[in-house]
Amino acid sequence: MAKSIDDFLTFSDSHASSFLRTKTYSSRFKDPSPDELNEILKYLKNPTETGIWRLRIEWKSVSGISEDIFNSVIVKKKNKKKVSIEEKIKDVVKRISFIYCFFTYLYYQEKKDTSFSEYLKYEHSSEYQIINDIKDLEKIKKRYIDAYVFFKKNIFIEGFNPWQDNEIKFVKKGFYILPGSIWNQRTNPWNRFYLEENNVVVADLFSSKAEVLEDISEFFIKIEKIKNENLTRIFSPEEEVFAPYADFLSATHEKIIKDRNISRRFSEATSELSDDNFSHCINIISVVAEDILVRVYENVYREVCPKNLGLGQLQDTIARKANKLLKKENSKPDNQEVLKEINKLNGRKKLNSEVLKLIRSLALNMEKNTDYLERVIDSEVRKSDEIKLFPAYLKDCLNELTRYRNSTSHKSRVPIGEYEALRALYATFYLYQWWIDERSRLDWKKSKEEILIDLITEN
């Protein structure tokens, strides 16, 4: 096994992972609680209504604690490719994940618990060797003792995961996310999260709670890593509100989306988005929307949906079928025969006149009710060719998604970029959640005509 940082940094993490591990720290990593998932779901369902808190920081790469650790590590030689070991160390210690790792290491060292150290050794060998090669560890800890105390009190929780830079980070008062797309440097995967100019990174961190980001900001200040910071709640413009949307969705889709096939498709779509394959993202997610619309058709109408229909065609097919059923179901009943039978009773002496009057009144009232219901249906449904099966906002989302889908198929001139792909993800997720909510709300013991009326009445 490698014995110095010079040798250790030539090993990849994948090689180190092959060693037998006696304990697995990663099994402790925290999952979102039901309340935290609900907070994320609120944002995913309507970002512009819930808004999002954003902490914008200017991150100083090699300064503060990163610089002190770098200067405390002894490097003896260069590696075989003549790439400076110093540069590799510098590249590691400037990362947010390394700083979290360092303070987590101090926490478990204080507890005399070796599980985290063992996990580091086999899963994150570079970080492990750098920390073990710090010659002035206690001196650095003493200098940043305020930060360490603050970390234990306001950041660290059981199951804390230092390496969730592009996923959800769970901390003491909640969670935040550092969107991977903001930091993505595709030409250098090793340095994935840092796009630098003059050793300063402008980055955005997002959370549903201001106090979470306030604690993160204070911690970064205590370790002398940020130059400027600004905390604000964003509702508009949409481009900024939606900035962390794909990352939140990617990190939680398996827990929020119970359908495994749909969840897998969302995962594929967010992956394409992160790789800047925006058209592929829209194509994948449009297939999901089509699948959901097919389910709407087949569950409501209880028959197989026609095959090979696109998004727009599926919406038209659902609307036409609804109009057909409602016209058939809501035709005006003939009450004339009932009234004739009542008139025959008029001459019978034994029949109480008050009872006869009541029967006639009930029959006429039923006819009036029928006329009223017919007028309501006419005004709400038959006043246009398009049935209002979907809420107006969902209909707008579907129309927007259809435009993007057509654009990727060269049927329109709508430009496709990251924002359009994000909107496509959102529109499809909104459709999915609407259908899940409706499925749980509707009484499926009713007839398909009654189900249809319930949908129209609700929406």
Average pLDDT: 81
Tally of distinct domains: 2
**What is the first-to-last residue Cα distance?**
66 Å
Portion in beta strands: 5-15%
Q: What is the assembly state of the chains in this entry?
A: single chain
Query: Rounded to an integer, what's the Rg over CA atoms?
Result: 31 Å
Could you spell the SSE succession in H and E letters?
Answer: HHHHEHHHHHHHEEHEHEHHHHHHHHHH
The biggest sheet amounts to: 3 strands, antiparallel
Number of helices: 23
Structural class: mainly alpha
Stretches where pLDDT is under 50 for at least 5 consecutive residues are 10-23, 181-195
Q: What would the principal axes of the Cα set say about the shape? A: elongated
Secondary structure: number of strands:
5
The order of strands across the largest sheet is 4-1-5
| Portion in helices | 55-70%
Salient structural properties:
459 residues, mainly alpha, Four Helix Bundle (Hemerythrin (Met), subunit A), 2 domains, 3-stranded antiparallel beta sheet, two-stranded antiparallel sheet, 23 helices, 60% helix
Written overview of the protein:
This protein has 459 residues and is mostly helical. The protein has a three-stranded antiparallel β-sheet. A two-stranded antiparallel ribbon has the order 2-3. The model is unreliable at 10-23 and 181-195 (pLDDT under 50). β2 (168-171) and β3 form a beta hairpin. The protein has 23 helices and five strands. The chain has two domains: 54-250, no CATH class; 258-327 and 387-458, Four Helix Bundle (Hemerythrin (Met), subunit A). The longest helix is centred in the last third of the chain and has 30 residues, at 353-382. The protein has helices at residues 5-8, 13-16, 34-45, 47-50, 64-72, 85-93, 96-110, 115-123, 125-132, 137-143, 145-155, 180-183, 210-222, 238-241, 245-256, 260-274, 278-301, 311-329, 336-344, 353-382, 392-408, 418-441, 448-458; strands at residues 52-60, 168-171, 174-177, 200-207, 226-234. 31% of the residues are buried. α15 (245-256) packs antiparallel against α16 (260-274).
